Amino acid sequence: MSGIYIHIPFCRQRCHYCDFYSTTQIKRKPELILALLSELEQRKDWIGEETIRTIYFGGGTPSLLSIDEINQILDSIYLNYNVVENPEITFEANPDDLTEKQLRLLSETRINRLSIGIQSFFNDDLQLMNRRHDREQAINSVKMAQEFGFKNISVDLIFGLPNLSIERWNENLKIVESLNVQHLSAYHLTYEKGTVFEIKRKKGEITPIMEEASIMQFKTLIAWAKQNNFIQYEISNFGKESFFSQHNSNYWNQKKYLGIGPSAHSYNIDTRLWNPSNLSMYINGIMKKQAVYEKEILSESDKYNELLITALRTKRGLNLAQVEAQFGNRVKHHLLHNSQKFVESKKLYLKDNALVLSDEGVFVSDAIMAELMLVEEEID
Ligand SMILES: C[S@@+](CC[C@H](N)C(=O)[O-])C[C@H]1O[C@@H](n2cnc3c(N)ncnc32)[C@H](O)[C@@H]1O
Ligand code: SF4
User: Fold this and answer.
1) Distance from the CA of 76 to the CA of which of 8, 50, 183, 287 falls in 20 to 30 A?
2) What is the tens place of the pLDDT at every residue in 168-206?
């Protein structure tokens, strides 16, 4: 079973924290749609005979698409690929695009999961981030989506913002609770290279919050999730039972996927491909039926590191039998040896023959993963 990701590389305005590939040249949308439809036809072989279980419209801002454009893309997927009977079809949307009319139309498409980028319910935080919506639009978008029958809704929040107090973070979580959604993605703010936030931080115009405050917000999030029956199935993702994102779980479970659109990645265990993060290069290449992607054949250590960082992010953890079956006994022992100090310091624990991050370990997951990664010579 595989997934298809469609990248919609347009935003009305750029948020000050975000470095995902997108442009504000929305007038080029008709050209992009033609290129997406063409790429869907050209790349059929990547999936082969496998069935498609998940489809994900991500961005950028998919909610800038018209209903007709969404249906053209979905029709092309159904025509060219073998889609399972009840696929998960996720659509990322910004609250300001989710008007009553648009939600009614969206509810008539095959889309069955909405991922709404709320980030915060505080207007001054939203302004700081350069978001286009306010608190009221955020709340109403979720309520209206529910009224139009969406039963699988995820919201995105960002914590660790400059000056975000624990009271405000609690209030954000309380509102999510009251909205009765099925899923929450909560990310700690990262200062990405080239973003307004990073530039302001360098100039001293923004002061990142203290590490203790970050940890406190993360702990609050984990405790809140437990109290409210949200299962933390991945470091930043919390779902009610049977509402985990199947599409993202497939990434973490190393399933094959096809990425369509500028900057989209594709993966099939042995190879990783990525399309250019440039609208003109993408459209021109695809319309000339050229392979626009760059390609990387994964070495054994790449594959091992990929498994390590994806599996350790999940609640299931890194299965030792899988490591042994795929990479041999020597690599498994190397892993057990190197992870021992983290087990002793209770940052990792063993459960059902898998190494799993503890709540403490989650706070320092990047450092743990970096230490456990293998370099080429250690595996060959
Ligand atoms: C690529 S965005 C697309 C969603 C949609 N365009 C929106 O803005 O609502 C996906 C999510 O990544 C998160 N995100 C992006 N950049 C981030 C950063 N630097 N730090 C933390 N979270 C970030 C935000 O929560 C955002 O909703
Ligand atoms: S967060 Fe969403 S709307 Fe904002 S710049 Fe990134 S992709 Fe665009």
Assistant:
1) 183
2) 999 999 999 999 999 999 999 999 999 999 999 999 999
Q: Give distance in angstroms: CA of 31 to centre of ligand 1.
A: 25
* Ligand 1: nearest atom to the Cα of 20: 1
Could you report the per-residue pLDDT of 361-377, keeping only the tens digit for each? 988 999 999 999 987 66
Domains and CATH numbers, the chain: 2-252 (3.20.20.70), 300-379 (1.10.10)
pTM for the model: 0.95
CA of 272 to the centre of ligand 2 (A): 25
Three-state SS sequence of 279-314: HHHHHHHHHCCCCCCEEEECCHHHHHHHHHHHHHCE
| Ligand 2 site-directed mutation target among 7, 8, 10, 11, most atoms within 8 Å of CB | 11
Q: By alpha-carbon position, which residue is closest to atom 20 of ligand 1?
A: 189
Ligand at shortest distance from the CA of 129: 2
